[in-house]
Structure formats: C-alpha cells, structure tokens
Amino acid sequence: MSTGDLLSIEPQELQFPFELRRQISCSLQLMNKTDDFVAFKVKTTNPKKYCVRPNTGIVLPRSTCDVVVTMQAQKEAPPDMQCKDKFLLQSVVTSPGTTAKDISPEMFSKESGQPVEECKLRVLYVPPPRPPSPVREGSEEGSSPRASISDNGNNGSSDFGVVSKAHAERFDPQDNSSETRALITKLTEEKISAIQQNRQLQQELVRGFVGRSF
C-alpha cells in the first residue's frame, strides 16, 4: 500500500494480466485518511493507451473511492514483457461540499498555494489467469488441450494458448488412433495365441484318448 498524508493507495502497482487484442482493466482503491474533502487527478505517460474512470474526483472524509484503469487492446507484446508506462496520482485538500464538477486543473498547480501530494505508480504485466477447460464425459479430448495450455500457461500472450490448444486438437486424435491400433493388435495376437493353445490342448486330449483305447 502506498501511503501519503492525504490518501492511501492500494495497490501501488498497476498489474495487467496481459493478453493480445483484449482490453484489460485493473482497479485502484483510494482511501481518504483525513477529515477533509480531498480532490484527486490521475495522469499517465501514455494517455492514448489507457482509459481512467474517473480520472478526477472527490474522496469524502474517511471514505474510499475506486478508480478503474483500462488498457486498450494491444497488437504486439512488448520486449521481455516489460512496460515503461507510469501513472501519477495527484491529491489536494479542497473545501467542504466540493464536487467532481468543481475540479479544475488549477487546483493541482503549485501556484495555487495548496500543497499537492503526488504518488507515482508503475505498470506491470503479469501472466493471464488460466481458463478452466471443459471436460467431456467419455472423451479424452477435454483433458488433452488442458494439459497443453497448462504447459504453456506462463507465456505472456493468449496467442500462445490458442496455438497450444490448436496443436493439441490437431495431434491428439492421431495419438489416440495409434493407441487404439496398438491395443487392437495386442488383443488380436492374444486371441490367436489362445486359439493355438486351445487347438494344441485338443490335439493332446485326442492323442491321449486314442492311446487309452488301444
């Protein structure tokens, strides 16, 4: 938790479960530690990439406010999954009864005479959560794609998951067919061996019966 004189911020890092071509959101909770009305404003080094709601607001005395930060869908993964984007949260004490509509850029200017508290937040990309795989009764197809996704679950992009799942679906049926053919061959060999043993036993019984007759 990042703690200032006016607001406590949780978390102090914006963690996005990075996936290509998907909008991803994470939230911040601002807690007013004072008995005053506190105005806040959120800035970022990359405003075209993120949407912040609300980007300005009022946190009432001893209360909290949730801020949702949404990252726009990305077409490419950054090198080494590192993000250099940063956020700056500014806060300042304002007069009682102030609303979000009353907030102006001048309130956060040092020339206003009011001390402006600033907190810098960095952005981290984390692996996306692993989606549950449907399991079909009486079928092995449900388990095979899940294993492939699990093996590649630490990759930073959902594209790898898609490739892994398609790869498993494309090759699993062949693997199952090979196992089936091997099982059929084994059963056939056992059946032939049993028939041969049965015939040999019958021949021995016939020879023994003929010997006793003479």
Walk me through the structure.
- Belongs to the VAMP-associated protein (VAP) (TC 9.B.17) family.
- It is a single chain.
- The chain is α+β, with helices and mostly antiparallel strands and 214 residues long.
- The chain has 2 domains: 2-126, Immunoglobulin-like (Sandwich); 130-214, no CATH class.
- Helix content is 30%, strand content 29%.
- It has a 5-stranded antiparallel β-sheet with strand order 1-2-4-8-6, with no helix packed on it.
- A hairpin with a 3-residue loop joins strand 1 and strand 2 (7-10).
- Helix 1 crosses helix 2 (158-213).
- The protein is rod-shaped.
Summarize the structure.
Helices cover 30% and strands 29% of the residues. It has 214 residues and is of the alpha+beta class.
